[in-house]
Amino acid sequence: METILITGGTGLIGNYLTSFLQNAGYKITYLSRKKNTTGTVKTYLWDLKNYRIDEEAITTCNHIIHLAGANVADKRGHLPIKKKLRTAA
């Protein structure tokens, strides 16, 4: 079974994509800033402050889908978010 690691998997698109891919027969894992041990999807820790990613997240997956980033839907027009997006581009 192919394993897909998703960053930003708990967001709107990530939730839909997770269900879709699981129904298609893929095993899904997440890479997140918060390690979740109660959910149905195994979640690995992404420690941004210390520049660390749980190595097992990378070594046990076949594919990576990167969805993590600033949430523009929640705060549309919010100045700090706009500045963050401008500097990221």
Describe the structure in your own words.
The protein is α/β, with parallel strands linked by helices. It has three helices and five strands; from the N terminus they run βαβββαβα. The protein has helices at 12-23, 55-59, 79-88; strands at residues 3-7, 27-32, 42-47, 52-53, 63-66. It has a five-stranded mixed sheet. The mean pLDDT is 84.
Give structural attributes.
89 residues, alpha/beta, 5-stranded mixed beta sheet, globular
Write a brief structural summary.
This protein is α/β, with parallel strands linked by helices. It has helices spanning 12-23, 55-59, 79-88, and strands spanning 3-7, 27-32, 42-47, 52-53, 63-66.
Question: Helical element count?
Answer: 3
Query: Average pLDDT value?
Result: 84
Main sheet properties: 5 strands, mixed
β-strand number: 5
Low-confidence regions: none
Distance from first to last alpha carbon: 36 Å
> Over all CA atoms, what is the radius of gyration?
14 Å
Succession of helices and strands: EHEEEHEH
> Can you list the strand order of the major beta sheet?
4-3-2-1-5
Give the fraction of residues assigned to helices: 25-40%
Class by SSE composition? alpha/beta
β-strand percent reads 25-35%
> Which oligomeric state applies?
single chain
Spell out the blueprint of helices and strands:
Elements: E1 3-7, H1 12-23, E2 27-32, E3 42-47, E4 52-53, H2 55-59, E5 63-66, H3 79-88
Parallel strand pairs: 1-2, 1-5, 2-3
Antiparallel strand pairs: 3-4
